[in-house]
Each structure stands twice: as C-alpha cells, then as structure tokens.
Amino acid sequence: MNESETQPRPPRDIRAALDAHSTLTLAYADDDGPQACAVLYAPADGDDTALLFVTSVTTRHGRALASGAGVAFTAQRDGQVWTALTGIQGRGTCRRLEGAEREAAWRAYSERFPYVDHNDRLRQAMERTDLWELRPSWLRLIDNGQGFGHKTEWTRPAA
C-alpha cells in the first residue's frame, strides 16, 4: 500500500518515526562524486520536519552542504528483522544556522543529547562546530510491520 500526502505537516506516523531515531545517513554529491556520512540528529523545536545536526563546514560534506546542493538521507534502527523493518527516506536541503537561530536550535539539540552538556571538553568542541538544519522536501516511511513494502509519503507543499 502506498499512501501519499501533500499537507503542511507530515503524517503522524512519519513524525513518530523521525522522533524514534537519532542517527541519519546523509548523502550528497560534490566535484569528487557522491558520498555519504552518518550524523546524529535532533528534531527542531516547533517544526515538524526540520532536523538538526552538527558538522564542521571544513569537512568534505560540510563544504558540499555549504554550496546549497540538495541531499538525500535515511534513518533507521540497526538489526531489524525484514518483516518488521521500518525507516525513513528523504530529500531536502541543508543550511548552516547562525546567531539567535543557532542558539535556539542548540537548545533542542542538547536536549536530545544531554551528555554533550555534561562533558566540558565535548561541549566546548561542539560549541565551536557548525550547527545545521536539514529541511526535508519529501519523506517516505517504509513500515513492513503494516505489510511488506507499506509506504507512507509526504511532500512539502510549494510555498
């Protein structure tokens, strides 16, 4: 079954799946070709789709993200049985947050990962790195627990 929606907010099951995971694999392409990396993410406060993650703009993926190119990503738990496999696929864009936006987003990120604030060395290192917002334009939930290949899709409405 394939359910597809174009509404301002993703369906509840997609939002719940994003909240249930904390690591995503982010795929991008640059002049050297396609590449992927894993990052820890937190849902942004007050936004049903924006995801927050940290990485330095000096990394290969940070440089690619700074160019404004689109990205693709997945989020799922490791070690799942295929009959109950669930996960998210998505596409979108990333932007580096600065100033008051970064401060507000940092609070959401550190709530999701409180150990960052409990380790001075780690907190100081994280404060010096870049905080990014991933804004999905399309999301797909795969949920084999509802039947093999069950999909729910959401597309961000045009502005």
Description of the molecule:
- Helices cover 27% and strands 39% of the residues.
- The protein has 159 residues and is an alpha+beta fold.
- The chain has one domain: Pnp Oxidase, Chain A (Roll), CATH 2.30.110.
- Strands 1, 2, 3, 4, 5, 6, 7, 8 and 9 form a 9-stranded mixed β-sheet that branches.
- The longest helix has 14 residues, at 99-112.
- The protein is globular, with a radius of gyration of 16 Å.
- The two termini are 28 Å apart.
> Please, how many domains?
1
Strand content: 35-45%
The ordered string of helix (H) and strand (E) elements is EHEEEEHEEHHHEE
Instruction: Specify the CATH class.
Output: Mainly Beta
Tell me about the largest β-sheet: 9 strands, mixed
